[in-house]
Amino acid sequence: MNKLIVGNLKMNLLSIDEREQYLNLFKRELKGKKLEKVDLLLAPPFVHLEGFKKAKIKNLSLGAQNMFWEKKGSFTGEISPSMLKNLGNDFVILGHSERRKYFQENDQTINLKVQIALKEGLRPILCVGETGEEKEANKTLTVIKREIKNALRNISRARAENIIIAYEPIWAIGAITTPTTNEIMEAKVLIKKILVELFGANYTNKIRILYGGSVSVTTIQATCLDSGMDGVLIGRESLRPYEFLKIAELVSGSS
Ligand code: PGA
User: How do residues 63-118 score in pLDDT, each as one tens digit?
Assistant: First the structure.
């Protein structure tokens, strides 16, 4: 199974000019790079999805950073899963901690989104992870368990393989500290166990479990390679194509 390198561009690239600059740089950095056994995916803001698609970057998948749980209708300001799919996206990040924090997303609404994403043929990248306080209180594993079980309610086994999980400790996002390799491994083992409980071993082999939170060229070894994760979800460093692709190269070279 290839490792998955996801770039979450968040609310950046403020104009078409900025977007084009980013894409040109990305293409330039990608040229001549031999990236084997890694899949690349970028999640730009909605308004840039079409522009990214038109850039036709080889072997680059696209995803959105969020979406609504209804397909169509009177939901002012929302984006439908079908819109994303029809624009040529295959992935959608769901339950990111910034959505939970600033937009009151909760396990229940995230579950609705995961269900419809799968139904519409989008692959959800479900983010879970504990706050600094929860970590202090030794609740990391409890939080992960609750978030995954709730988000994956009423999902059939047959669709399970399309799910991707990203373990993102909230205290490590946009920070300078990251969990230890052991802590990440422990989270992965637990996630795997929950998935097997929910769907059975045969249906969970293809579910990739990523790490996210201050991933960089310097932290990639400890956060992904040593901990045996199936890839990473990158925030800040995805805004710098050189760094993003360097991380991909390191992951590729390690396999
Ligand atoms: P970061 O963000 O890499 O800037 O810590 C990760 C994320 O929010 O997904």
Answer: 999 999 999 999 999 999 999 999 999 999 999 999 999 999 999 999 999 999 99
Overall pTM surpassing 0.85 (yes/no): yes
Distance CA 59, CA 41 (A): 9
* Separation of alpha carbons 184 and 169, rounded Å: 9
Report how far residue 75's alpha carbon sits from residue 81's, in angstroms, rounded to the nearest whole number: 13
pLDDT tens-place string over residues 6-61:
999 999 999 999 999 999 999 999 998 989 999 999 999 999 999 999 999 999 99
Q: Among 29, 98, 105, 168, which one carries the catalytic annotation?
A: 168
Closest residue to atom 7 of ligand 1, CA basis: 235
**Ligand 1 center–CA 52 separation, angstroms:** 20
- Which atom, in ligand 1's list, is nearest to the CA of 233? 9
Q: Residue 202 Cα, ligand 1 centroid: separation in angstroms?
A: 31
3-state helix, strand, coil in the chain (%, to 5): 45, 15, 40
- List the residue whose alpha carbon is closest to atom 2 of ligand 1: 235
48 in active site: no
